[in-house]
UniProtKB/TrEMBL annotation:
Start-end of Basic and acidic residues biased regions: 15-42
Pfam families reported for this sequence: SVIP (PF15811)
Coiled coil: none
Region Disordered, residue ranges: 15-76
Protein name: Small VCP/p97-interacting protein
Bias type Low complexity, positions: 46-58
PANTHER family for the chain: TRANSMEMBRANE PROTEIN
UniProt superkingdom: Eukaryota
Protein species of origin: Hibiscus sabdariffa
Keyword terms of this UniProt record: Lipoprotein, Myristate, Palmitate
Length: 76
């Protein structure tokens, strides 16, 4: 028998469309799962600690130079 995979009567296009839809559904489920994990992390003690640490670092970086230039030149 010969290979007639190119002459499948349009099933190739239908299969590609089905694969595209399945891929889109899988991406949507993965995004939902990632969102749920993010929400659970934010509610956990580790998530609250991480948020507090990021806020403290942001506060420190905004107050650190107080109008002074970040790099100072020294002569000599």
């Amino acid at each position: 028998m010969g290979c007639f995979c190119c002459f499948d009567g349009g099933n190739n296009e239908q299969r590609k469309e089905e694969e595209r839809l399945a891929s889109a559904e899988a991406r949507a489920r993965a995004a939902e799962a990632a969102q749920k994990r993010q929400e659970q992390f934010e509610k956990s003690a580790a998530g609250r600690a991480a948020r507090a640490q990021m806020q403290a670092a942001a506060k420190q970086s905004t107050n650190s130079n107080k109008g002074e230039p970040a790099l100072k030149w020294q002569m000599g």
